[in-house]
Automatic annotation (TrEMBL):
<dbReference type="InterPro" id="IPR014776">
    <property type="entry name" value="4pyrrole_Mease_sub2"/>
</dbReference>
<dbReference type="GO" id="GO:0005737">
    <property type="term" value="C:cytoplasm"/>
</dbReference>
<dbReference type="Pfam" id="PF00590">
    <property type="entry name" value="TP_methylase"/>
</dbReference>
<feature type="domain" description="Tetrapyrrole methylase">
    <location>
        <begin position="4"/>
        <end position="204"/>
    </location>
</feature>
<dbReference type="InterPro" id="IPR018063">
    <property type="entry name" value="SAM_MeTrfase_RsmI_CS"/>
</dbReference>
<keyword id="KW-0489">Methyltransferase</keyword>
<comment type="function">
    <text>Catalyzes the 2'-O-methylation of the ribose of cytidine 1402 (C1402) in 16S rRNA.</text>
</comment>
<keyword id="KW-0698">rRNA processing</keyword>
<comment type="similarity">
    <text>Belongs to the methyltransferase superfamily. RsmI family.</text>
</comment>
<keyword id="KW-0949">S-adenosyl-L-methionine</keyword>
<dbReference type="InterPro" id="IPR000878">
    <property type="entry name" value="4pyrrol_Mease"/>
</dbReference>
<dbReference type="GO" id="GO:0070677">
    <property type="term" value="F:rRNA (cytosine-2'-O-)-methyltransferase activity"/>
</dbReference>
<protein>
    <recommendedName>
        <fullName>Ribosomal RNA small subunit methyltransferase I</fullName>
        <ecNumber>2.1.1.198</ecNumber>
    </recommendedName>
</protein>
<dbReference type="InterPro" id="IPR035996">
    <property type="entry name" value="4pyrrol_Methylase_sf"/>
</dbReference>
<dbReference type="InterPro" id="IPR008189">
    <property type="entry name" value="rRNA_ssu_MeTfrase_I"/>
</dbReference>
<keyword id="KW-0808">Transferase</keyword>
<dbReference type="InterPro" id="IPR014777">
    <property type="entry name" value="4pyrrole_Mease_sub1"/>
</dbReference>
Length: 225
């Protein structure tokens, strides 16, 4: 039976990949990548020669049909994102949904678990995370106010991603709504310059501004409960 493996890859440090993931990436017929150039660095590091094909949020229906046809032929494929777990704030879930709808019992979908920025940030936050809300990236225009209101009003910790270019803007918007927020901001998780900022939102904003603002950020907001 055909198989689509959902393979987690490192979020920064290339050592954070499982032996099982490396074996699967070596054995499958094709690796579907969010960006083939990014995945190539990982594959080259581990001397994996498996061919790759790009699959991302802008991929057209023809490419999805092509992937489904490969599975109909009994091929084994792996889906990876640029970093972390495919399908988590990532276009991989769309492909999985299409395969489930088109192939039903003709193909297996198998998780190869591993790194995820969400769980990494939650684990170092110090906040109770038996329940938490993950919201992905904030909207850039519409629905921003509603997005941040949901965070402010949450009983449980909230985790979201943000880019270098918008981290200060997003934190300032939250600060205006509630100056008493306790937050943890993780920058460049697992990488050489990993930094974790903790404390009142106003103080954290000032600390981030003192540093060179670069890299990807994960924000954890303490809930009301």
């Amino acid at each position: 039976m055909a198989i689509l493996y959902i393979v987690s890859t490192p979020i920064g440090n290339l050592e954070d990949i499982s032996r099982r993931a490396l074996r699967i990436l070596s054995e499958v017929d094709l690796i579907l990548c969010e960006d083939t150039r990014v995945t190539k660095k990982l594959l080259d590091h581990y001397q994996i020669k498996t061919p790759t094909l790009s699959y991302h949020q802008h991929s057209k229906i023809q490419k999805i049909d092509y992937i489904i046809n490969l599975l109909k032929q009994g091929k084994e494929l792996a889906l990876v994102s640029d970093a972390g777990t495919p399908g988590i704030s990532d276009p991989g879930n769309k492909l999985v949904k299409e395969i489930i709808g088109s192939l039903s019992h003709q193909a297996e979908i198998v998780s190869i678990p591993g790194p995820s920025a969400v769980t990494a940030a939650a684990s170092v936050s110090g906040f109770p995370t038996d329940k938490f809300l993950f919201l992905g990236f904030p909207p850039t225009k519409k629905k921003r106010k509603k997005f941040f209101e949901e965070i402010i009003n949450s009983k449980y910790p909230v985790i979201f991603y943000e880019s270098t270019y918008r981290i200060i803007k997003s934190l300032e918007e939250l600060r205006i709504m509630n100056q008493e927020l306790e937050i943890v901001v993780c920058r460049e998780l697992t990488k050489k310059f990993e930094t974790i900022y903790r404390g009142n939102i106003k103080d954290v904003i000032e600390e981030i501004k003192k540093d060179k603002i670069k890299g990807e950020f994960v924000v954890v907001i303490k809930g009301k409960k």
